[in-house]
Amino acid sequence: MPREIIHLACTECKNKNYTTTKNKRLHPDRVVYKKYCKFCKKHTDHKEVR
Ligand SMILES: [Zn+2]
């Protein structure tokens, strides 16, 4: 199974706060996770970046 390492960047401050893996076959589109951003000091949407 091709699990790819992706980075999750805060959509507000653009910092890459998280690294995760994702199965491209199950999630071919860009994923967005609601996660805590230590720079914004709140939960924001984190978008997949490469
Ligand atoms: Zn942020």
UniProtKB/TrEMBL annotation:
Gene Ontology BP terms: translation
InterPro entries the UniProt entry points to: Ribosomal_bL33, Ribosomal_bL33_CS, Ribosomal_bL33_sf, Ribosomal_zn-bd
Keyword Ribonucleoprotein: yes
A single GO cellular-component term on record: cytoplasm
Protein name per UniProt: Large ribosomal subunit protein bL33
Family of this protein: Belongs to the bacterial ribosomal protein bL33 family.
PANTHER family to which the protein is assigned, alphabetical: 50S RIBOSOMAL PROTEIN L33, CHLOROPLASTIC (PTHR43168), LARGE RIBOSOMAL SUBUNIT PROTEIN BL33C (PTHR43168:SF2)
Keywords: Ribonucleoprotein, Ribosomal protein
Taxonomy, superkingdom: Bacteria
Molecular function via GO: structural constituent of ribosome
Pfam family, one: Ribosomal_L33
Gene field: rpmG
NCBIfam families referenced in this protein's UniProt entry, alphabetically: PRK00504.1, PRK00595.1, rpmG_bact
